């Protein structure tokens, strides 16, 4: 089990690296996180919703993501409340105190999911959440030391040296662990180290002597790893940057909505040469963009009201008036329409709000959430100058609501959900293709779809488009898992980790 001294210490990436290393070494391995709090989620083949981090770790392990890998998902809806997803289905919206009263049921859910998963795999790499010694929450814990006890897991503690305070965070965490909890730990890992690691040797020796625990490795800071992040903390680093690619550089601006979800939709875009993706909450920074994207949102109506209150409506309309491409994905698609209704108040107390009025569509939010994998084909390929083989877009739906097209809108995709025989229309597009919206997440995760979108945007923006083949995002993702494993393997004491695993078999 991988635990951390704090949030964003690198638990998710470390767990993913271990999954790939163990896979490379011939083991049937799977990831598990009892409870995940994130707005990034994924729809599994069985139509269940789990945290995106566990889907990423499953891919690193070379297996299909499954709902048993993340039985509880919390999706924040406010500063004090979250939508609670249990075993892949929405259970309800709860404030913190009310949620913790569910502990007996939550423990049953995570225990049963773990046991099902462990029965199918040789090794499980568990991930904790935040810190295992949040003393005000320990009696309600279902994800850290309580889960380690349920799984009888050997534990490692990861700390982030880049943020500072590494000695205090490690010594303090071990000091707050109960003796029976501390006995589970086989060592600690120093993550995100910058500079000459030899200069830190005295620090490692001090910690090993003070903690009576071995250092499992010092992992150098890994820049631009290109692997999906768990939460939006990482977006703070992806801000507007000076132009470096000349007049043909394509600048893509993603609006940093307060409840932005599934920003992993843009990972493939970020890896394309000649394309710069940046995130901002400042409308004046959108003026430099060639393409503007309204991303997914956990709370569509509150995020739309935030746009209006912060000057974004004028910025969006100015972008459209300049003839530049505008894209809405999921909640962003809903915002582009004429109105959004929430008669059941599933996302907020606002029952009606006027949309941006850029597509002739109307949305009504419903109680049931759609979580399905799907493929899609363009309905009007001529708009995208496609007269040969039609590109296939591969992705998934996670949304509340039904969107009805008006007379002035045309559907974008013919979408087929996994397991369905018939197809349905999805999304909408205006006449010249400069404004489009869709529910399909992963819009850019296929090389075919990515190439078509980039060529279309460059044409609209008057920028040259290279006919060179765009790397397959799925192949690129696989290459990055291999690089991640190599990076960790070079710096990990895998011999000690294998002894920890053997001690629990």
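Sequence proposed for the structure above (505 residues):
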């Amino acid at each position: 089990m991988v635990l951390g001294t704090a949030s964003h210490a690198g638990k998710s990436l470390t767990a993913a690296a271990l999954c790939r290393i163990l896979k490379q070494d011939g083991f049937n391995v799977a990831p598990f996180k009892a409870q995940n709090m994130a707005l990034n989620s994924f729809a599994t083949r069985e139509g269940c919703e789990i945290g995106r981090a566990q889907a990423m770790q499953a891919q690193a392990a070379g297996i299909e993501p499954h709902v048993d890998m993340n039985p509880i998902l919390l999706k924040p809806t406010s500063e004090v409340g979250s939508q609670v997803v249990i075993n892949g289905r929405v259970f309800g919206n709860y404030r913190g105190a009310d949620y913790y009263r569910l502990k007996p049921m939550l423990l049953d859910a995570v225990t049963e999911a773990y046991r099902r998963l462990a029965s199918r795999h040789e090794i499980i790499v568990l991930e904790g959440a935040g810190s295992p010694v949040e003393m005000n929450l320990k009696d309600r814990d279902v994800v850290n030391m309580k889960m380690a006890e349920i799984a009888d897991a050997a534990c490692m503690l990861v700390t982030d040296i880049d943020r500072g305070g590494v000695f205090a965070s490690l010594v303090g965490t071990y000091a707050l662990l109960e003796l029976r909890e501390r006995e589970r730990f086989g060592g600690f890992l120093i993550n995100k180290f910058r500079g000459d690691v030899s200069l830190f040797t005295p620090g490692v020796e001090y910690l090993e002597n003070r903690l009576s625990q071995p250092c499992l490795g010092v992992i150098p800071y890994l820049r631009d790893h290109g692997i999906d992040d768990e939460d939006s903390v990482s977006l703070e680093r992806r801000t507007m940057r000076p132009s470096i690619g000349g007049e043909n550089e394509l600048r893509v601006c993603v609006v940093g909505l307060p409840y932005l979800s599934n920003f992993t939709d843009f990972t493939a875009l970020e890896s394309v040469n000649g394309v710069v993706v940046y995130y901002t909450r400042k409308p004046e920074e959108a003026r430099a963009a060639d393409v503007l994207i309204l991303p997914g949102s956990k709370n569509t109506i509150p995020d739309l009201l935030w746009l209006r209150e912060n000057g974004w409506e004028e910025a969006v309309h100015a972008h459209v008036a300049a003839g530049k491409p505008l894209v809405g994905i999921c909640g962003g698609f809903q915002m582009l329409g004429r109105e959004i209704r929430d008669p059941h108040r599933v996302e907020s107390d606002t029952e009606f709000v006027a949309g941006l009025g850029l597509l002739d569509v109307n949305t009504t939010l419903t109680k049931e959430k759609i979580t399905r994998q799907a493929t899609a084909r363009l309905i009007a390929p001529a708009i995208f100058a496609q007269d040969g083989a039609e590109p296939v877009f591969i992705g998934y739906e996670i949304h509340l609501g039904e969107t009805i097209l008006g007379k002035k809108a045309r559907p974008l995709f013919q979408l087929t959900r996994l397991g369905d025989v018939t197809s349905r229309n999805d999304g909408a597009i205006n006449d010249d293709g400069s404004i489009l919206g869709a529910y399909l997440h992963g819009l850019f995760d296929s090389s075919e779809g990515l190439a078509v979108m980039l060529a279309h945007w460059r044409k609209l923006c008057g920028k040259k488009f290279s006919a060179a083949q765009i790397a397959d995002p799925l192949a690129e993702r696989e290459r990055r898992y291999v690089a991640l494993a190599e990076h960790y393997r070079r710096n990990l004491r895998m011999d000690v980790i294998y002894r920890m695993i053997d001690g629990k078999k």
